[in-house]
Each structure stands twice: as structure tokens, then as C-alpha cells.
Amino acid sequence: MPSAATIDHNTLARLVEAKAVHGTHIVARPGGWGVIVRYGSAESSLAATRSKETRVFKRLETLVGYLKDVGISRFDVDAADFDSAAARTYSRPDTSATLKQAHAALAHDRWFRDQVGQALKEADDPSTQWVSNEAAMAEGAKRRAAWRSRSASAVTKGKGSPA
């Protein structure tokens, strides 16, 4: 039965470093797994950092990895209250859409950088022929006039209205 006393991660790490931990128990709880640590004559549950509530790990593998990282490799497991239906992982349907957006953004970023790199290479090429702004504006005006005249002639021939 878990005790009301709790310890945080830093305290647990210091107790392990001082070799003061005498026993570690993993206990099934609603929604996952908890840890009870015995040290000296005390017994405490591992607490979550922010809430100071007893920490619950959703997956046993995650808890085992955590304990090994702290330096605890031997422990007892009490699965009496384990409920496989309650222990199912929760899916997040928005994760798929978020990942697709992230991948699309990454692909666009790569494409954009390739385009900029190609443009810089062309700009640095000594054989590149430059067009002045005045010449580009004159060419644009000439093309717009040609489009207008084609559009106007299509309207007068009854092929539609200008858009």
C-alpha cells in the first residue's frame, strides 16, 4: 500500500548515489504504474515534479528506463491492480495532421533554399546577362498591351467577356 509521503526525482537520485535505497517497488495504479522507494526506516512514493502528486507512468517500459537511468536496476513489481483496458495508450488524432504540416513545411524550406541557391549561383555567373529595370518594365507594358488587344478582339468577335 503506497504511503502518503512523497519524494521528488532529485531526492531519489541523491538517495541512490548515497546507496541508501533498500528496496524499490513498482505498483500498478489506475492509469499506469507508480514507484515506492524504501530508504532507512522510511517508505515514500515518487512524486511528479510540478504537482507533487504521486507520479504515474503510463508504460512500464518507460518506468523501467527511468529507474535504470537513476541507478536502480532491481525492483519488485506488484501488478495486482493492473487493468489492461485502463492502461491503453491514448491516441492523438491531431498528431498526424501536425506531422504532415511539419513535413510539408520542411519540404518547402528545402525547395526554397534550393531556389535561392540556384539564383545566387546564376547571379554570380559572369556569363549572366542582366536586364535593366526600364527594359523589363517596357517589355511588361508591351506584353500587357498585346494581351489587352487579344482580349478586346475576342470580345468583339463574340467569344466572351473580358475578365
TrEMBL record:
Gene3D superfamilies for this protein: 6.20.450.20
Sequence segments annotated as region (Disordered): 142-163
Name this protein carries in UniProt: Uncharacterized protein
